[in-house]
Design goal:
It is an enzyme of class 3 (hydrolase). This protein is an alpha/beta fold. It has 9 helices and 8 strands. The chain folds into 2 domains: about 140 residues, 3-Layer(aba) Sandwich (Rossmann fold); about 70 residues. A 6-stranded parallel beta sheet has the order 5-4-1-6-7-8, with helices on both faces. The chain has a two-stranded antiparallel sheet with strand order 2-3.
């Protein structure tokens, strides 16, 4: 079965504001104000919790990997409390996935967000039933760009890897697709905008309404 695998953060949904809020909760707990900006630092947010903590501490003149490690669980707890406060699906995302499924495609999520948080978020967004599988950062011993999580996502959704493609928004997604040997489509409405073209994906996706036709063409 042809399968389309999606990244989550920055691809299906804009989660940046809630991620930044969780990091800022850590900084406030350490006696600082809100160090990161939800708009200007959106790209940092999509690099993960540790990246946000590291960037914020650097602005405070601190380089402390041990403090980052200690605050990471605090960040995850804060994020879980407000996981869908500001997060929204990108326009047309759900409709595009529904159209793919109606056309006979299997659909899956492969994300570097911890599995429990990813499951919580897609449930809150009302889209869990649109995906045959969800593989998170800690589902397997390795995470993207290692190919194993992607392969697991395809196979658990009932698909065949050689007839699959990845929809993402970052260099990690590009490297994952290359490691597996499948086409990669990067969204131009994510954190990097049109700058993702520098990663030379097989295609760019400017709006979700174009995805069903693009997938049919690429996996014909």
């Amino acid at each position: 079965m042809r399968t389309v695998v999606f990244d989550l953060d920055g691809t299906l949904a804009d989660t940046s504001a809630d991620l930044i809020a969780a990091a800022n909760a850590c900084f406030r707990g350490l006696g600082h104000g809100d160090v990161l900006d939800p708009v200007q630092d959106a790209l940092i947010a999509f690099q993960g919790g540790r990246a946000m903590l590291t960037a914020g501490l650097a602005r405070l003149g601190q380089q402390d990997p041990e403090l980052v490690a200690a605050q990471y669980p605090v960040l995850l707890a804060a994020y879980a409390e407000g996981i869908d406060t500001h997060t929204r699906l990108y326009p047309g995302a759900a409709a595009a996935v529904e159209a793919l499924r109606a056309a006979g495609f299997a659909t899956a999520i492969c994300t570097n967000k911890p599995e429990a948080l990813a499951e919580m978020l897609v449930q809150r967004l009302g889209i869990r039933g649109l995906f045959g599988s969800l593989i998170g950062a800690d589902t397997l011993p390795t995470r993207k760009p290692d190919p194993a999580p992607y392969v697991a996502a395809v196979e658990q959704a009932g698909g065949v890897v050689r007839r699959s493609m990845l929809i993402g928004d970052t260099e990690t997604d590009r490297k994952t697709a290359a490691a597996v040997g499948v086409p990669c489509v990067l969204v131009s409405f994510g954190p990097e905008g049109s700058d993702v073209a520098r990663l030379a994906p097989e295609a760019l996706l400017h709006r979700f309404a174009d995805l069903p036709g693009l997938a049919a063409q690429m996996l014909s």
